[in-house]
């Protein structure tokens, strides 16, 4: 492994899911639903395979049907206009979109400002680009963006801000004021923004505002979405990027040499999924909100401090009321103590101690209610 990637051995998600399987634990670690998305979307994929659509290399930028559906989605929801031919790119999940965007837009030695804690692929991709990640720490209980810290994090070497809202792992949803501050800074310092909005539809209080809707931001923002999150098919790995022809073209150049294309038949299904009626999104939100409330209440009863998230399908907790101090240690022992797997938030920090992440532990609630209830019972009995 080259020096740029030192310390980035195995993702915590793979490690923790393997631990869950090996110990027969309930996996509230890695964020993936334990029931699949809508049957009609599944059928659309099967139909595409049977009918020979997408079984050979699809077009490089993605099939036109999906690019049009993404453009329609951005217009209908947010009033954002994108040309499906030049301003939309289909990727192998949001993961590839993040990697391709960072590799396309960063020079070695550049700095990237990102909200800390951050999704683990950010640090790896920034490192692969030879750039440096500078964290702006979100702190409990609100995990609000500290606007002074954000401003202080920008230097002459800063090339871009890597945003994530709704935010994994804290569940924070950036407010209009916070987004306005990001926009102001980006304009003032001439920065690009890559914004990871994969949880755009999973907001329970407040609303998701895409950064690209703010004045002057469409021109300098790469927005990332994920079919896996919105439609509960994380294994299909269909994501997308929207932005100006220059920005999307740059991402596309890199994408060509990472995967070239992927998921042909699933792209047809994703296009159909994006055309589901509003009732789908309303039901998804209502279902996940009920699960959030179930798990949050249960974790409180089990003794955790719970930071109830406004978005995503993750809850961040603090283990100190349980007499513990280290989330990594806590998560390592949790399978044998309780038969439950969770993720130590420390892995999402550059410096967990300095950022206050050491005692924090993340649980996902994208599981069936009876599974969440059983996990809560086990935690209450074992802790
Ligand atoms: N960004 C964030 C913040 C995520 O939580 C995830 C899913 N773990 C991804 C990107 C990756 O999404 P995908 O599965 O579409 O690659
Ligand atoms: N995004 C998911 C999470 O945060 C996992 C994705 C992955 O395993 N790479 O749990």
Write up what this structure looks like:
- This protein is an alpha/beta fold.
- It has two domains: 3-30 and 279-382, Aspartate Aminotransferase, domain 1 (Alpha-Beta Complex); 39-273, Aspartate Aminotransferase, domain 2 (3-Layer(aba) Sandwich), CATH 3.40.640.10.
- 43% of the residues lie in helices and 15% in strands.
- The strands form three sheets. A seven-stranded mixed β-sheet has the order 2-8-7-6-5-3-4, with helices on both faces. Strands 9-10-13-12 form a four-stranded antiparallel β-sheet. Strands 1-11 form a two-stranded parallel sheet.
- Helix 4 runs parallel beside helix 5 (120-128), helix 4 packs across helix 9 (245-258) and helix 11 (278-302) packs parallel to helix 14 (369-382).
- The radius of gyration is 20 Å and the shape is globular.
- Residues 31, 93-95, 119, 164, 168, 196, 198, 226, 228, 234, 237, 239 line the site of 4'-deoxy-4'-aminopyridoxal-5'-phosphate.
- It comes from Mangrovactinospora gilvigrisea.
- Its cofactor is pyridoxal 5'-phosphate.
Biggest sheet: strand arrangement: 2-8-7-6-5-3-4
Radius of gyration: 20 Å
Overall mean pLDDT: 97
What molecules are bound to this protein? 4'-deoxy-4'-aminopyridoxal-5'-phosphate, glutamine
Q: What is the CATH fold-level name of the largest domain?
A: Aspartate Aminotransferase, domain 2
Beta-strand content = 5-15%
Total discrete domains: 2
End-to-end separation? 39 Å
By helix and strand content, what is the structural category?
A: alpha/beta
| Number of E-type strands | 13
Largest sheet: 7 strands, mixed
- Weakly predicted, low-confidence segments: none
Order of helices and strands: HEHHEHEHEHEHEEHEHHHEEHEEHEH
- Identify the overall geometry: globular
- CATH superfamily of the largest domain, called what? Type I PLP-dependent aspartate aminotransferase-like (Major domain)
CATH class (first level) name of the largest domain? Alpha Beta
* Approximate helicity band: 40-55%
In CATH, the architecture of the largest domain is 3-Layer(aba) Sandwich
Number of helices: 14
